[in-house]
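A reminder from the course coordinator: this example appears on the midterm review sheet, so study it carefully.

Given structure:
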């Protein structure tokens, strides 16, 4: 798209040769480029164009495998797991703080109003 002042003019559709499409797919599948990098490098229009080419001409899709073309590296996977562990630890810490605050609130309410709020263990429930 070309922007002239307030007007937006759509550019003419581009046509790519089969050899070019296969070259781009091979670079993406081999991990040399991501789909976005291929779009920028070769000035390919459309966000889904390279993905469609990979599905149509790629070896990974032709084998029936639904794999991520950007091929997650081992370091990326480790970083993702570390990030997840950190988030889970934070959530656990927050849960502990919430439990402590609720316990304190119950204790203060029991003292102030002289009533037992906590259920006694071993009591029988009415039928």
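Designed residues:
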């Amino acid at each position: 798209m070309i922007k002239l002042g307030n007007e937006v003019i759509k550019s003419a559709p581009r046509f790519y040769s089969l050899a070019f499409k296969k070259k781009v797919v091979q670079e993406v599948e081999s991990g040399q480029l991501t789909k976005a990098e291929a779009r920028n490098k070769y000035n390919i229009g459309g966000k889904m164009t390279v993905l469609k080419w990979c599905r149509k001409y790629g070896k990974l899709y032709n084998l029936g495998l639904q794999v991520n073309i950007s091929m997650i590296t081992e370091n990326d996977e480790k970083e993702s797991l570390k990030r997840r562990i950190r988030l889970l630890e934070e959530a656990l810490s927050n849960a502990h703080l919430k439990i402590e605050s609720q316990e304190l609130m119950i204790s203060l309410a029991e003292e102030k109003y002289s009533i037992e709020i906590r259920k006694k263990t071993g009591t029988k429930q009415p039928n």
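The CA atoms of residues 65 and 105 lie 55 Å apart. Helices lie at 18-29, 35-42, 49-57, 59-62, 74-113.
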